[in-house]
Specification:
Helices cover about 40% and strands about 15% of the residues. The chain is of the alpha/beta class and about 140 residues long.
Amino acid sequence: MEILLAEDDTGHATLVKSNLRNVGIRNKIRHFEDGQEVLNFLSEKENGGEHIDYENAYMLLLDIRMPKVSGDEVLRQVKQNPRLQLMPVIMLTTTDEPQEVRRCHELGCNDYITKPVDYDEFVEVIRRLGMFLQIVCVPPLEE
């Protein structure tokens, strides 16, 4: 399984990747800095860069507040695409507003994790996420 990390804050992205590695995650982690980059990668057509391989399994860790295309819009497009809709999407964001949590679940996110502001708490949340990722089974997009 390849992990797609959509996070516009490079500091947060570095913390997420390093702390996932610290708990033993060795999967490829591909970082995107805005929502449009994610959508370009997920596009079915060649777009001059790397793109999704439907024979692989993916999990998307998705921030909500991102430039160009918001995380909730990326989530909406992923879950409306029949070829992508089974890809697990975990919202990983600082936003803990109840209406935003509800909206993301209504759009089809598989889980919603709030990133704490405190560094030690943030590290612990990512450590627990890494432990979860070690046991989760994700099928390829197409079999």
